[in-house]
Inverse folding.
């Protein structure tokens, strides 16, 4: 990882001064380093009020390949030229920063000086501050300090300098838009801040920057439903405000091109129609307005060319994109042009006429995925016919279903497949709900879009004999080279063309190149890359004559296909409508299932592997069905630890926690129970299952919920005793025993057991006493714990402090109620002993502070649902939110993070 954030680096020439440090004493060397570092910090503090590129956040995310990609884009743009000096200076400032990060300080200083020489930019704060930082880091401290003093003088003497600072902050916002999507929220924040002080002409420009950033943020949303309709409406209103009030034709043209993009984004037909009506135009009308306003803007040309392709106007798309790359050679321009070439080939080929209807049917069957796959720079997962994994569909249409054993079945486009592999007839309204309202050109555009990104198994879409294919490949290669291998979607499309040409080695190298920079891929693209690479390796294995190489390739293939399914499960685990379709959308599942059927394994082993596969795609019911088959075939396998683990995880995913506990008990009874428990990645997994079972039983008012809670608590106490006895004990004396909560007082050679599960310590104030009483009652009534408080069970004739310490000694856990701003003397004395125990925790009430002695222990804010519980409001019936709060409190006591417990 390459970081440009340097409190960063202290250069060795900064430390040398006039003497050779190697001849100094250690103390002198340390003093010199501290002085230089202090000076460095002090220098940067002087620049805090002057926005500059070295203040940009997320710099640690910038890797060398990403920096080179940004450098290439900026140099290309500067070569063509910007329309205003402000844009030119802005590009040169960011380029200078990137060059310095790439260890090219002389070039960085040159670009900075060119920015300052731009017309009217001698007061550019970013340029001046950037230059000062670069000079300082290059050891030219005198010149750097002079620049800082000049900035301070300008701030005090130059009229209107406050607005110059605002413009500098806006420049940083534009810099963030050049980084990865993680930086987009930072751009949005800065644009929002500068708009409050904006004047024309900057007002419209910064408003466009905000709308542009928010539109991109809508695209990069991964969580289903996280971008609601209001966000789309807000962005639309910003664009409409610009085109109505802005006087710049160039900016209005850019706005219409972005507006067209926004109108294309919704996957909801209702939202798309609503936005179109509010805008008063559709996608192509917005493009026409953009082109009427400015036909010489490169970004307008390539964006409109992309939109025309998506709407099926391929010749218009080709003309615009060819003009765009002739005007300025950019990676995005070439990539979009290559995609248009590809779609023209498909459109003119009979293959398209054969497959387009089938693709529309296939998409409609899984149409719910569309709204979750629209990510910035990403592609939809491979959507071909899901059938035979060797690439031949065996006379099956694109909608051929797959049974649970991986076999293809003949089915019409209106046939759906249930999770157990059965075919059911579906009505037209079931199979095409999302596409009934779309016109024919839109359906074709969707079909071509999907075809453009997925290998159609059993169909040869491209041929080296077609000169247009070579044209598309050449154009994609240019897109990749210009981006310094930073345009992942272009690399992906290039790999797909080679795959479909049968050039598997070349395709494999491109897909592996993508995985070498996996951090740059969206989740959707990762799925597709894993799957394509897995299938390529499988095809290569089938042709390999060396048995060892064949087995190695097959092993790598299966790993890639499993990663595709695992990544898909991670992405869609929160989307019930999508996760059930995973086995239909990707070829990985049917390929792996077919491989299992072909293996010469015993039937029970095949069932176990299939159970794992169905568990991976979150079809837990089907996974359990295969596990039951194992028990029927070989009953002795039902005691195998891995078998029991699979049963537990599937029941937990189905929220059948009590059933899961049955298998937990069986697992704990195995000969190697401790080792069996290590099968789970989370050491507390079994206890979390118990807590979920307790919650479920409490909600259903089952009689066993107290025993479930009590069992978890006893396990926790036993674990703590094991930890305590295994650690070296150097303390001695009765006071030390009390401090540790050691309940092993020897009396006649025996061990006295703890009398109470929980001791609650609290202040003597009535409010705190009432709260401790509430918590005590909850732990008794809901969790079945034996609870005492400060003086409740102190034996008669005992001094107060001695009596409480005796009770503490016989309690498994100490819970401190912290509800006051200051700790009383009496409670401080008790905390002296409680703080030395491992099993002491703090519960905060009404923003109470954590007592100083308890800061190293766990603490929790008392859930608000429990604040007003009285003896009349708790008992046999518990509200759902209160049950969740009770479980959160109990999970805190037993060190279980209830906020992240075994989510199904």
């Amino acid at each position: 990882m390459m970081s440009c954030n340097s409190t960063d680096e202290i250069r060795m020439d900064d430390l040398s001064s006039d003497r050779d440090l190697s001849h100094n004493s250690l103390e002198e060397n340390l003093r010199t380093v501290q002085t230089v570092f202090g000076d460095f910090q002090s220098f940067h503090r002087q620049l805090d009020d002057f926005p500059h590129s070295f203040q940009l956040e997320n710099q640690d995310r910038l890797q060398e390949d990403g920096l080179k990609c940004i450098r290439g884009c900026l140099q290309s743009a500067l070569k063509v030229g910007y329309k205003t000096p402000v844009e030119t200076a802005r590009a040169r400032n960011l380029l200078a920063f990137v060059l310095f990060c790439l260890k090219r300080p002389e070039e960085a200083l040159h670009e900075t000086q060119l920015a300052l020489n731009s017309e009217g930019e001698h007061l550019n704060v970013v340029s001046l501050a950037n230059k000062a930082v670069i000079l300082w880091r290059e050891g030219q401290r005198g010149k750097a300090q002079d620049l800082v003093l000049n900035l301070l003088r300008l701030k005090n003497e130059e009229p209107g300098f406050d607005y110059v600072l605002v413009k500098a902050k806006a420049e940083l916002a534009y810099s963030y838009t050049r980084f990865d999507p993680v930086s987009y929220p930072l751009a949005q924040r800065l644009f929002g801040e500068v708009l409050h002080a904006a004047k024309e002409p900057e007002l419209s420009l910064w408003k466009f920057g905000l709308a542009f950033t928010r539109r991109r943020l809508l695209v990069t949303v991964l969580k289903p439903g996280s971008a609601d309709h209001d966000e789309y409406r807000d962005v639309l209103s910003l664009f409409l405000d610009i085109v109505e009030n802005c006087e710049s034709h160039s900016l209005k043209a850019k706005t219409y091109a972005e507006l067209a993009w926004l109108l294309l984004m919704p996957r909801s037909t209702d939202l798309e129609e609503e936005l179109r009506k509010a805008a008063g135009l559709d996608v192509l009308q917005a493009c026409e307005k953009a082109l009427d306003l400015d036909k010489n803007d490169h970004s307008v040309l390539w964006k409109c060319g992309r939109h025309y392709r998506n709407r099926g106007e391929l010749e218009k798309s080709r003309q615009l994109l060819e003009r765009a790359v002739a005007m300025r050679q950019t990676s995005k321009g070439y990539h979009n042009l290559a995609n248009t070439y590809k779609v023209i080939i498909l459109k003119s080929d009979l293959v398209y006429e054969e497959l387009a209807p089938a693709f529309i049917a296939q998409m409609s069957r899984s149409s719910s995925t569309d709204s979750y796959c629209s990510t910035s720079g990403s592609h939809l997962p491979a959507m071909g016919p899901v059938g035979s994994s060797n690439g031949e569909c065996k006379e099956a249409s694109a909608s051929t279903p797959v049974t649970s054993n991986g076999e293809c079945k003949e089915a019409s486009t209106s046939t759906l497949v249930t999770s157990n592999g059965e075919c059911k007839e579906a009505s037209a309204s079931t199979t095409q709900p999302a596409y009934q309202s779309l016109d024919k050109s839109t359906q074709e555009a969707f079909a071509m879009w999907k075809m453009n990104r997925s290998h159609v198994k059993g169909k040869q879409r491209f041929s080296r004999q077609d000169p247009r294919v070579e044209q598309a490949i050449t154009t994609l290669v240019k897109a990749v080279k210009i981006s310094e291998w930073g345009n992942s979607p272009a690399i992906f499309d290039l790999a797909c063309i080679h795959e479909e040409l049968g050039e598997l080695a070349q395709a494999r190298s491109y897909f592996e190149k993508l995985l070498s920079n996996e951090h740059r891929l969206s989740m959707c693209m990762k799925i597709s890359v894993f799957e394509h690479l897995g299938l390529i390796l499988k095809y290569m294995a089938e042709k390999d004559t060396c048995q060892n190489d064949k087995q190695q390739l097959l092993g790598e293939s299966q790993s890639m296909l499993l990663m595709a399914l695992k990544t898909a499960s991670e992405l869609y685990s929160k989307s019930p409508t999508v996760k059930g379709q995973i086995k239909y959308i990707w070829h990985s599942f049917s390929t792996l299932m077919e491989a299992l059927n072909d293996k010469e394994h015993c039937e029970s082993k095949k069932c176990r592997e299939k159970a794992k596969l169905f568990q991976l795609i979150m079809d837990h019911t089907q996974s359990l069905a295969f596990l039951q088959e194992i028990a029927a075939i070989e009953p002795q396998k039902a005691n195998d630890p891995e078998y029991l683990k699979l049963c537990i995880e599937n029941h937990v995913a189905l929220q059948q926690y009590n059933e899961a506990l049955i298998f937990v008990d069986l697992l704990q009874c195995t000969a190697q129970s401790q080792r069996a428990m290590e099968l789970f990645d989370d050491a507390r997994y079994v206890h979390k299952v118990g807590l979920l079972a307790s919650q479920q039983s409490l909600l259903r008012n089952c009689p066993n919920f107290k025993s479930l809670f009590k069992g978890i608590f006893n396990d926790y106490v036993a674990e703590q005793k094991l930890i305590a006895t295994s650690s070296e004990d150097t303390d001695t004396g009765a006071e030390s025993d009390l401090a540790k909560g050691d309940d092993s007082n020897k009396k006649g050679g025996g061990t006295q057991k703890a009398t109470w599960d929980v001791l609650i310590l609290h202040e003597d104030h009535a409010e705190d006493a009432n709260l401790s009483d509430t918590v005590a009652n909850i732990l008794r009534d809901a969790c079945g714990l034996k609870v005492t408080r400060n003086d409740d069970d102190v034996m008669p004739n005992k001094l107060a402090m001695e009596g409480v310490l005796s009770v503490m000694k016989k309690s498994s856990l100490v819970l401190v109620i912290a509800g006051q701003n200051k700790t009383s003397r009496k409670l401080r004395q008790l905390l002296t002993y409680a703080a030395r125990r491992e099993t002491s925790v703090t519960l905060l009430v009404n923003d109470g502070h954590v007592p100083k002695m308890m800061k190293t222990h766990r603490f929790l804010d008392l859930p608000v649902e429990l604040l007003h519980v009285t003896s009349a409001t708790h008992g046999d019936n518990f509200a759902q939110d209160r049950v969740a709060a009770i479980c959160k409190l109990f999970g805190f006591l037993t060190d279980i993070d209830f906020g992240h417990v075994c989510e199904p």
User: Anything to note?
Assistant: The first strand starts at residue 415 and ends at 417. The mean pLDDT is 78. Residues 167 and 677 are 60 Å apart (CA to CA). The chain has 40 helices and nine strands.
